[in-house]
Amino acid sequence: MESAIPPHLQCPRLRHRRVPDDYVPPYPATVARYRSEVTRVAMAYFGIQHRADALAPALAARALHCIAEAFAAATGPGHWDRARCVDAAGYLTTVSIGYWDDPAAYATWFAEHGARWASGAFNDPALGLFTEVLQPAVDRFETLFSADVVEGVAGVSSGLGQPIQEHAYWGGMRDRLALSQTDGMAPEGAPQVVTEGLHQRVLPHGNLCLIRSGQDWTGTQGNERRMYTEEVEPVLRAGMDFLQAQGRQVDCYANRYMAVVDAQGQPVDKSFGMGWWRSLAALERWAESHPTHVAIFGAAMKYLGTMGPAAQLKLYHEVTVARAEEQYFEYFNCHPRTGMLGAVTGA
Amino acid sequence: MESAIPPHLQCPRLRHRRVPDDYVPPYPATVARYRSEVTRVAMAYFGIQHRADALAPALAARALHCIAEAFAAATGPGHWDRARCVDAAGYLTTVSIGYWDDPAAYATWFAEHGARWASGAFNDPALGLFTEVLQPAVDRFETLFSADVVEGVAGVSSGLGQPIQEHAYWGGMRDRLALSQTDGMAPEGAPQVVTEGLHQRVLPHGNLCLIRSGQDWTGTQGNERRMYTEEVEPVLRAGMDFLQAQGRQVDCYANRYMAVVDAQGQPVDKSFGMGWWRSLAALERWAESHPTHVAIFGAAMKYLGTMGPAAQLKLYHEVTVARAEEQYFEYFNCHPRTGMLGAVTGA
């Protein structure tokens, strides 16, 4: 067992972990490990939204093809995937998510390929496009994996590590962030929107928080699959729906409950929630005490308790607390409840 | 809203609270407040155990009468109550619990009346007697009340205070303890037993933890009463049974799920769990992640969510983390799984 915080990011503490040094988690979990040369990653969400009407899907398909081609460039992401959902306003939303472990490569790629995405290159009244990017320093994001599966930002890691100590208790998320050794990561300021015609930027605030929290049930069969589908997923969906519809009550700016799709756009048996939160503390409070997440936690506990070590459901998450200058939000022809726009309009 | 830690116990922090300064709990709760002259309290559990066979109940009744008379002395407790349970070995156990806000008064009273309880004064083969006492400094215990009801150590307070900030999140218990400002309260050492004939003392260890956590459903009626009795209580009982039977797995040395009784020995609609734990951290981990308590929490959340502010169920708890020298454990003719004896025998 090792600390989630790698040795090269450990420092004299100004703040304590929530568990004592002899804490032993009741079951194993691991985190993604990065080469010590990696100082910063990029997580770039390129979204497209449209109604499911006549022409829009074909136009969107062209845009999706373009971004996939751009991802294949030499400076493209080390890992990417794609997922979709229907958002709170009823728009089909598809997000192509690229991950880089090299900010210089990302900057080069973005200048050449990414900047055009939400800047009018796909200007059609039926399409909305958005770019949501975080470029956190390595002390500002953490991961967690229940099984040997690589998803999300772990796709640009050097792989999963040994079982870690800081999990299976409330507060583990914070304790896995290297920055928590010295900083409470309180939010600073409030988001603002700058509108110029169809183009909008959201000016971010310090210590905004992003979570991507996913599940992979491709390996489940029979009773396990039934139990996930019938007993866990509906409770998860209800929680995700709450965050989408009423998340502002709990300082969740925006939430998307997304189905991962393959290269042909077909759903695979994977999903994730991605949520923008005012602060890590707000995410902590919802997770540990809101009835919707208490229900999710209870359903997952029951499921995992029933299945035991034979469970084939794979769980993972990644959480980032970003400085303002590590954030970039751009929206083109999007409805006012899209992503971080909703944080400002309060729509 | 005010801090659970009264101003006269606030000090420069070496350790942070788990919530940010702008945290607002989703519902109100209060704590017992004490005169600033109170530096230490005493919580003294005088227990008697016996089988429910022929003569024992009458003998026990005599002992219970004696301790009640002793409690009425001028130096007696400022508040006391009585409760009973059937323990893990099947013994009917009745505990008379006295609370003092003045250690000198307690010392005087104990020398005159209390010391004899578990020292052979009620020597009968059918009876076991025990004395379990904590005398924590005021920075080493905390309370929590959901409603304007005074129970337990609050009986020697000057009353409940204003709504407090440090509750409704995991870690609130620790954050309400004044000592948490500067100390992690890690356990030190291990308990030992000293046996001399029928008489046994348990030599305690540093930072042992006691919780008394209670519920009062006297005010409930109709559907609320049914919901408490049928949906909450069985889940609570299952968790208490787990701690009694298998608590050692989670570093709970002993647990009693007790029914409060009146002066005539009749149960009233109040109960509490009292548990001895190796550490505050062990109690935290069980409460926030063990399936038995996750189920209790879920049932309570559902109940309170259904009832809303009209709920008449009253909840309270008191938690102490005691130095070794603030603890006193004495057992006379008790079976080896009684209270802290079980911590040593591992029975």
Automatic annotation (TrEMBL), chains A, B:
Q: Record's family?
A: Belongs to the heme-containing dehydratase family.
**Is this entry keyworded Cytoplasm?**
no
Q: Where are the transmembrane segments?
A: none
- What keyword terms does UniProt attach to this protein? Heme, Iron, Lyase, Metal-binding
Please provide, alphabetically and separated by semicolons, the GO molecular function terms listed in this UniProt record: lyase activity; metal ion binding
Concerning Pfam families, the annotation shows: Dehydratase_hem
EC class name:
lyase
Please name the InterPro entries in this protein's record. OXD
Q: What is this protein called?
A: Aldoxime dehydratase
Q: What is its EC number?
A: 4.99.1.5
Q: Required co-factor? A: heme b
